[in-house]
Amino acid sequence: MRLLVGERSLPVVQLGPDFLLVGEPMDLPPGEACMVMRVDESESQWKVYLPNGISAATNRVAIMAAA
Length: 67
Fold this sequence. Notes:
This protein has strands spanning 2-5, 8-15, 19-22, 31-39, 42-50, 60-62, 64-65. With 67 residues, it is mainly beta. Strand 2 and strand 3 (19-22) form a beta hairpin. The chain is globular and about 35 Å long.
């Protein structure tokens, strides 16, 4: 799993209903992002909103469905 934020691609180590855990936390502002999940040869992508952005101080990131 990966989180695409602008031109950055961050590894996602866990995905929950309203949060995810990134493998490489960094400071990024609130905004839209794209979740990418690949299983075998099948890939799914969907937009999410990061209401609090991402903080380098923690790997837990709040997410919401993007409109």
